[in-house]
Amino acid sequence: MESTRNRLIKLLNQEDNYISGQQLSDHLNISRTAVWKHMKELEKDGYEVEAVQRKGYRIIASPDKTSENTIHWGLSTSWIGHQLHHYEEVDSTQDIVHQLAKQGKPHGTVVVADEQIKGKGRMSRPWHSPKGKGIWMSILLRPELSPVQAPQITLLAATVLAKVITSQSQLIPFIKWPNDILINHKKVSGILTEMQAEHDQIQYVAIGIGINLNQSAEEIPVDIRHKASSLRAESKEEWNITSTIQEILKQFESTYDQYAAEGFNYVKEIWETYGYKIGEKVTISTMRRTWEATLVGIEPDGALIARDSEGKREKLYSAEIQWGEGGYDAK
Ligand code: BT5
């Protein structure tokens, strides 16, 4: 059920139309005093509401700060982000989403923070998440999948981010297996998937998405500056956090629904068109050997397929890849 606040925002945001206090009260089925109180709250969130005598009210400026309301406003999704929790500061949005999952929150619940103090990557590596400079977000999913299929969701999330970057800019994103987003060979985004499963069924999946939006090159920590960047540093344009979150949620929902209807092949095809060095030669080191390979694509279990010089295909689950001259690791 949509909140009164959201319905109020939608009513106040109808192009050039003004709406009177009485009409608002009728539509929302609340008193005029209650309408007025909600409007004061909107102003606190950074909305500017214009009041014109005998015409009524309308929104003339939306806030540039991110909040539950500003994300909800204009978000036309059917299941993702309806339950949305925004925090100014958290240790990690992943921790929060795990708590919410254990409280029984539904599929599609989203947690967003302006800043993470202990943002984490895979294998407990730190993830730099400075205040107001990027998207630090976790999505709770309750897919009807077996645990071995969980990597498909991570690969799906990477295709969503690549699609959003492509649709919002001239940038050309690549997905470095399994799920880093690179632009000009530098990482702008990472995905962390954590899962709770019992027997043969996933209980829930927590997808953590970190995207560097507006850091200047100097704001990227020195130790990773050679291999990390932000969308602003690459596109020379400022990115709006709220509208980018909305785009990701919309694109996530439609991609997920399509994947649920068509199966993994749908994700695989998109992933491979964005796949970093797919069809190109790299050097692979596994426990057993180091060899030259051409990367071919991905498998339903998340593995990377590589072909050696004799045409023999091998599935890789974790491997050290040297991406070659000018590549990610040559920076
Ligand atoms: C990842 O791990 O790339 C997954 C990052 C997921 C972050 C999101 S933010 C919302 C949610 N809440 C969390 O606490 N986490 C998720 P991995 O592939 O292990 O990469 C980590 C490595 O990337 C680090 O060891 C650094 O080298 C580098 N790194 C750290 N911060 C970075 C940043 N902001 N941009 C680019 N690279 C970074």
Top keywords for this entry?
alpha+beta, transcription regulation, single chain, BirA Bifunctional Protein, domain 2, seven-stranded mixed sheet, Arc Repressor Mutant, subunit A, WH-like_DNA-bd_sf, aa-tRNA-synth_II/BPL/LPL, biotin, binds biotinyl-5-AMP, 331 residues, SH3 type barrels
Q: Taking Cα atoms only, what radius of gyration do you get, to the nearest Å?
A: 22 Å
Number of β-strand runs:
14
- State the CATH class of the largest domain: Alpha Beta
CATH superfamily name of the largest domain? Bira Bifunctional Protein, Domain 2
Q: Tell me roughly what share of residues is in helical segments.
A: 25-40%
Oligomeric state of the chains in view: single chain
Q: What global shape is seen?
A: elongated
Low-confidence stretches: none
Q: What does this protein structure show overall?
A:
By secondary structure, the chain is α+β, with helices and mostly antiparallel strands. Helix content is 31%, strand content 27%. Strands 3-4-5-9-8-7-6 form a 7-stranded mixed beta sheet, sandwiched between helices. It has a 5-stranded antiparallel beta sheet with strand order 13-12-11-10-14. Strands 1-2 form a two-stranded antiparallel sheet. A hairpin with a 3-residue loop joins strand 6 (173-176) and strand 7 (180-183). The termini are far apart. It folds into 3 domains: 4-61, Orthogonal Bundle (Arc Repressor Mutant, subunit A); 68-274, Bira Bifunctional Protein, Domain 2 (BirA Bifunctional Protein, domain 2), CATH 3.30.930; 281-330, SH3 type barrels, CATH 2.30.30.100. The structure holds biotinyl-5-AMP. The site of biotinyl-5-AMP has 27 residues, from helix 5, strand 5, strand 8 and strand 9.
